[in-house]
Design goal:
about 35% helix, about 210 residues, seven-stranded parallel beta sheet, 7 helices, two-stranded parallel sheet, alpha/beta, globular, single chain
Length: about 210
Amino acid sequence: MSNPLTSKQYFITGIGTDVGKTVVSAIVAEALNATYWKPIQAGDLNQLDSGTVSSLTENVAILPEGITLSQPMSPHAAAKIDGVNLELSDFELPKVEGNLIVEGAGGIMVPINDDGLMIVDVIEKFQLPVILVSRHYLGSINHSILTAAALHRKGVKIAGLVFVGEENKETESIILKITGTSVIARIPEVSELSKEFILEQASKIKLQSV
């Protein structure tokens, strides 16, 4: 594995589902010329997030998902349907040269099995700093602060936040103040994603920020 002192490796997670993790992962991976990997994918196996990232980027190496589950639901429930019993030992960080972006599934408290294993436990095991994605909606302050607090309790470093949507100074300032974090980027919402949009946003990210 690359020396963490000379490579940038991050786990990208969100404050919930559908906040823009995959889009942000594509943007940051493109900005860093990184390898992209998703440890677990639950849902339509013909529409994998790795395929989305691949179609939207130019300078990103794509690794196959670590674990794929066929049903679009919580991994613990999808694993039952697929007859799979997931344990923490099933998750191993791939050995790559250079920068690496790892994208989570759902929020950090999403269960992976019935014994209490959650996405946050995988994050803790990997020991990668987290880029937290927060999209503006009613309740996002609560969800952002709770997510940051849970990561801090696990001893996970938060590299910074990416806000999705139009700037909301009051919302952003209170989240940053209470969580003690900084902004990496603000990504606008668009009606239709394109490679041009991803490349444009990637060019705006200062690599020293992440």
